[in-house]
Design a protein that fits this description.
The protein has about 180 residues and is mostly helical.
C-alpha cells in the first residue's frame, strides 16, 4: 500500500490527519533519514497493519536498508524500555529506580546509523508509548548532539500523527462487517 492510498482510506472526519500526514512527509527541518525513520519506527510501535505497510513501503523507497533496520530496532527496544522505565517511574517505592534494569540494550550503543538519528527514532517511539522518563533521556542526548528544539518537536509531531492515523485505521477496520 502506498502513502497516498493510506491517506485516501482515512475517513472524512480524519481530514486533519490526512493533511498532517502530508505535512510530515514534506517536513524540511529533518533529514529524510530522520523523517522516514521516525515514521517507520512509530508505525512499528503502533502496529496497525495498513499504516505499517504504507509507511514501511514509503520508508524503504527513501532511506537505506540500515536506516530501515535501525527504525525497527528503535521500535523494538523502546517497546521494552518504555514499559520498564515508565513502570519504575510510576512506582511510589523509589527503590525500583535504583535497581539495575538487567535488560539487554546493545542496539542503543551500536544502532548501525548516526547516533542522533537513532535517538530521534527512540524519542518518537517513546512519545507513542507515553514514557516521560525515556522522552527526557532521549531529548537530552539529542540536544547534546546539536539537535534543535524544533527538530525534537518534529519527531514528536510525527509520532502523534502516525499514532492517530493508526488508531483511526484500526477503528474503521473494526467497524467492517465480519466475513461469514
Amino acid at each position: 500500500m502506498s502513502l497516498d492510498t493510506l491517506k485516501s482510506k482515512l475517513p472524512d472526519y480524519a481530514k486533519d490527519l490526512k493533511l498532517n500526514l502530508g505535512s510530515m512527509v514534506n517536513e524540511t527541518i529533518l533529514t529524510d533519514q530522520q523523517k522516514y525513520g521516525c515514521l517507520l519506527a512509530c508505525a512499528h510501535a503502533v502496529g496497525e497493519p495498513q499504516t505499517l505497510r504504507a509507511l514501511e513501503a514509503e520508508a524503504r523507497s527513501k532511506i537505506s536498508p540500515e536506516a530501515v533496520t535501525a527504525a525497527k530496532a528503535a521500535s523494538a527496544i523502546m517497546g521494552m524500555n518504555n514499559v520498564y522505565y515508565r513502570s519504575t517511574h510510576l512506582f511510589t517505592n523509589e527503590t525500583y529506580t535504583t535497581l539495575p534494569a538487567k535488560l539487554r540494550m546493545n542496539v542503543i550503543g551500536a544502532p548501525g546509523i548516526e547516533k542522533a538519528d537513532f535517538e530521534l527514532f527512540a524519542l518518537a517511539v517513546s512519545a507513542v508509548n507515553g514514557c516521560g522518563m525515556c522522552l527526557d533521556a532521549h531529548e537530552s542526548v539529542l540536544r547534546k548532539h546539536g539537535m534543535t528544539t524544533e527538530q525534537v518537536q518534529a519527531g514528536v509531531r510525527i509520532a502523534s500523527v502516525v499514532n492517530a492515523v493508526a488508531r483511526v485505521m484500526a477503528a474503521e477496520a473494526a467497524l467492517q462487517p465480519e466475513d461469514a
